[in-house]
């Protein structure tokens, strides 16, 4: 089935997303999408009341799943997907990063969007309508960003630049090959090596696409380019046998019991020759290209500098937040929230003897106080990780008052892999793979224990583990009979919104009842997410300079210099992504307040959270529709007497 021109697709979308008011309290309006026709021949000449369109939607979701999964064997490996589910062996393949595949992917998504719009929404069951609405919002928003014709875009995420210090085959594949591609047998070793042999080709294909983007004017900002050059030089093979790829391969081979020393030597030599030859040449070509761009790169980080930058940013905001909020609305909401949170922080700072300077400056002073730091030693790292585990144990016990049921799997606290220290966030959660080969993990990036004052750790752990990401993502991962596409979709407004809301839940549970400093850490965390609304929109819509953004975050958040620079660079390479957190959190809080007001004594908090989490991640308009239905189902029924 062929889709029409892109402009026709956009015209069909009209008001697909729900508009949140500036004060975050706008009334809910259900989404109704006009059906353009029927999806399958069996529905022809049948009214919605006669025939359900659920089978047509199920078939569509299956095609969407197959289309998205088939182009990402790397994601299949990271997910622990079975060969049967993928449709064949994929362990020797890398993603195809060619321009031809990128164009086919865009065209296929447009065709699928057109196909979805032909399904009669009115003939669907309520659960299928949820899936329909979620897919429609996702595909329309993704198509809008892809139409700009540069960068990379997936289902629910985007970047205007193909290659940055945090994105690109030159870095992604080193991490993938050493973290997600295990070598447990001789057969695994051969497949791993086949992937290694194609790594230079993947880098070359991506670089060619990047060169086309550059010719159209999509050049990353100068600070981003410099960090990317530094990263590429760091990963460029010097002594090949010492490169992380060869070192990892050698270590894995040594643990295979039924492989001879002679075979190990031959395999390692092949890997060393590949890394020291074609791969080294490709890194040199990448560095040369990036070096040549520095003099042409824009000095300031905002995406507004691109030829279609303002429109790109609006579309990226919609993709990440799943709302129609404008940059100004988000900016103003952030300013208001920062003021509200500062009013709560100020009395604690005064009580701690911090009375002079900006809120951010005083928070920074406290964060550097040795009394609140773990020793930056191996023993100090162990102590820090144990402190995190203690807080998670407390939260797991307390969460019964808030959640009906949590995920079956546990979460393991680990130090993050050193190879990603300079690009990974301070902490992050990884759901358990589908094959059960490892548990869910809460990874802490211990570049230095000084990055984690004791009073900031509890809230960080509540966000990343329990009751945050592990509760939400763990439950989502354990849902049965869900389509593969669910594992490939990014829904940061929902997932990060829940994790930020979960910090509020920990406060309600009494996490900081006798811990003023812990409460300060909680408020600083919320403050950062509010400040992100201001800084992201400031850089990308209000044309803030890099220096202005850095100064704002210094006086507002209390982060260290390195963290602040990473924040600013994040807003440059993923415009709009940082706005998803607070947008989601405020939506959930508003929905809860509305439910409490309408249901009064009939309101059940655990049931409310089940209504939020049960169906899994979804766009905020779909979440709003679900909660409206849930409220209606919870109202006391009138007596029949």
Description:
With 641 residues, the protein is mainly alpha-helical. It is 58% helix and 3% strand. The chain contains 24 helices and five strands. It has helices at 6-13, 54-70, 73-79, 83-86, 99-117, 126-146, 169-179, 186-215, 222-235, 244-253, 261-293, 309-321, 327-351, 359-367, 378-398, 457-464, 469-478, 492-508, 516-540, 546-557, 561-573, 580-599, 605-613, 620-634; strands spanning 152-154, 157-159, 411-415, 427-430, 440-444. The strands form two sheets. Strands 3-5-4 form a three-stranded mixed β-sheet, covered by helices on one side. Strands 1-2 form a two-stranded antiparallel sheet. The chain is globular. The chain starts with 5 loop residues before the first helix and ends in a 7-residue tail after the last helix. The relative contact order is 0.11.
What are the defining features of this structure?
641 residues; mainly alpha; 3-stranded mixed beta sheet; 24 helices; 5 strands
Strand order of the largest sheet: 3-5-4
Number of helices: 24
Percent in strands: under 5%
Residues in helices, as a percent range: 55-70%
Q: How many beta-strand segments?
A: 5
Mean pLDDT, to the nearest integer, reads 91
Structural class: mainly alpha
- Shape field: globular
**Oligomeric state of shown chains:** single chain
Unreliable runs: 1-50
Rg from Cα: 25 Å
**How would you sum up the major sheet?**
3 strands, mixed
Order of helices and strands: HHHHHHEEHHHHHHHHHEEEHHHHHHHHH
Distance between the termini: 56 Å
């Amino acid at each position: 089935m062929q889709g029409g021109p892109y402009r026709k697709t956009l015209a069909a979308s009209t008001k697909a997303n729900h508009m949140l008011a500036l004060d975050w309290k706008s009334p809910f309006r259900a989404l109704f999408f006009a059906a353009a026709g029927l999806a399958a021949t069996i529905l022809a000449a049948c009214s919605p009341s006669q025939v359900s369109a659920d089978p047509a939607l199920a078939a569509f979701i299956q095609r969407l799943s197959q289309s998205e999964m088939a182009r990402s064997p790397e994601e299949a490996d990271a997910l622990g997907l079975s060969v049967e589910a993928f449709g064949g062996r994929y362990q020797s393949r890398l993603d195809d990063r060619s321009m031809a595949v990128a164009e086919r992917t865009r065209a296929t998504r447009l065709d699928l969007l057109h196909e979805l719009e032909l399904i009669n929404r009115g003939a669907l069951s309520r659960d299928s309508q949820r899936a329909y609405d979620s897919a429609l919002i996702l595909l329309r928003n993704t198509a809008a960003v892809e139409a700009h014709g540069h960068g990379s875009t997936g289902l629910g995420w985007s970047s205007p630049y193909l290659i940055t210090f945090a994105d690109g085959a030159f870095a992604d594949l080193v991490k993938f090959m050493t973290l997600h591609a295990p070598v447990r047998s001789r057969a695994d070793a051969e497949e791993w090596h086949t992937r290694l042999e194609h790594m230079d080709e993947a880098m070359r294909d991506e670089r060619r696409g990047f060169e086309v983007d550059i010719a159209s004017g999509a050049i990353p900002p100068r600070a981003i380019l410099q960090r990317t050059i530094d990263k590429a030089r760091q990963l460029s093979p010097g002594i090949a046998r010492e490169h992380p790829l060869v070192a990892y391969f050698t270590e894995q081979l040594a643990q295979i019991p039924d492989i001879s020393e002679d075979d190990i030597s031959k395999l390692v030599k092949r890997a060393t020759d590949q890394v020291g030859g074609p791969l080294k040449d490709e890194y040199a070509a990448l560095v040369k290209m990036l070096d040549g761009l520095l003099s042409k790169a824009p000095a300031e980080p905002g995406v507004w500098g691109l030829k279609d930058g303002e429109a790109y940013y609006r579309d990226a905001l919609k993709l990440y937040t799943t709302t129609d909020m404008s940059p100004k609305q988000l900016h103003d909401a952030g300013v208001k929230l920062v003021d509200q949170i500062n009013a709560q922080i100020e009395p604690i700072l005064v009580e701690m003897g911090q009375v002079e300077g900006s809120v951010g400056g005083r928070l920074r002073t406290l964060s550097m106080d040795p009394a609140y730091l773990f020793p930056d030693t191996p023993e100090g790292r162990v102590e820090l990780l144990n402190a995190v585990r203690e807080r998670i144990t407390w939260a797991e016990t307390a969460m019964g008052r808030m959640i009906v049921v949590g995920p079956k799997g546990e979460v393991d606290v680990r130090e993050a892999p050193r190879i990603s220290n300079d690009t990974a966030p301070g902490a992050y959660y990884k759901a358990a793979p589908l094959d059960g080969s490892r548990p869910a993990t809460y990874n802490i990036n211990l570049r230095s224990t000084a990055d984690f004052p004791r009073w900031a750790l509890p809230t960080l752990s509540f966000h990343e583990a329990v009751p945050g990401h592990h509760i939400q993502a763990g439950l989502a991962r354990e849902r049965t009979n869900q389509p593969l596409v669910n594992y490939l979709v990014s829904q940061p407004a929902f997932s990060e919104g829940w994790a930020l809301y979960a910090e509020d839940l920990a406060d309600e549970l009494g996490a900081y009842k006798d811990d003023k400093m812990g409460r300060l850490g909680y408020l600083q965390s919320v403050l950062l997410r509010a400040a992100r609304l201001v800084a992201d929109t400031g850089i990308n819509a209000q044309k803030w300079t890099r220096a202005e953004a850095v100064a704002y975050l210094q006086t507002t958040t209390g982060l260290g210099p390195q963290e602040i620079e990473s924040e600013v660079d994040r807003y440059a390479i993923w415009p709009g992504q940082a706005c998803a957190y607070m947008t989601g959190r405020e939506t959930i809080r508003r929905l809860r307040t509305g439910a409490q007001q309408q249901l009064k004594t009939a309101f059940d908090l655990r049931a409310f959270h089940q209504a939020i989490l049960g169906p899994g991640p979804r766009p905020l308009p779909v979440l709003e529709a679900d909660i409206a239905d849930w409220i209606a189902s919870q109202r006391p029924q009138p007596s029949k007497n």
